[in-house]
Design goal:
The chain has 107 residues and is an alpha+beta fold. It has one domain (2-105). Helix content is 36%, strand content 26%. The protein contains three helices and four strands, in the order βαββαβα. It has helices at 14-33, 65-74, 98-105, and strands at 2-6, 43-51, 58-60, 79-89. The chain has a four-stranded antiparallel sheet, with helices on one face. Strand 2 (43-51) and strand 3 (58-60) form a beta hairpin. It is elongated and about 60 Å long.
């Protein structure tokens, strides 16, 4: 999804347009997560960008995407750009830390 959402449309409430844009983004994420996973893939991961325009968009995490949109709107932006691209994700095992395990054995 690569889209510029307008927040200033004649005859429409700015807050309603913002809520509709957030709904579209969440709906897209839900739809992509529901797709069948390829073999050897554990989950769908997302590359996200957000900004005033495509040229000024910065990389953000999925968790911070809505927060970044709220900041743009709070600063008085007339529009905002969102880019969300799905990619396969694979879980990586955490390395064991022997020092941490020894501390808990004595308790």
């Amino acid at each position: 999804m690569k889209k510029t959402f307008q927040l200033k449309v004649e005859g429409k409430n700015r807050e309603r347009l913002l809520d509709a844009a957030k709904h579209d983004i969440r709906k897209y994420l839900k739809r992509e997560r529901a797709k069948a996973l390829p073999k050897e893939v554990d989950f769908w991961d997302f590359d996200c960008k957000s900004g005033y325009s495509e040229a000024t968009a910065a990389v953000v995490s999925v968790a911070d995407l809505i927060k970044s949109i709220d900041e743009i709107v709070k600063d008085g932006g007339e529009q905002f750009y969102v880019e969300v691209l799905a990619k396969p994700g694979v879980k990586v095992a955490r390395p064991k830390n022997d020092a941490t395990e020894d501390e808990f054995d004595g308790e």
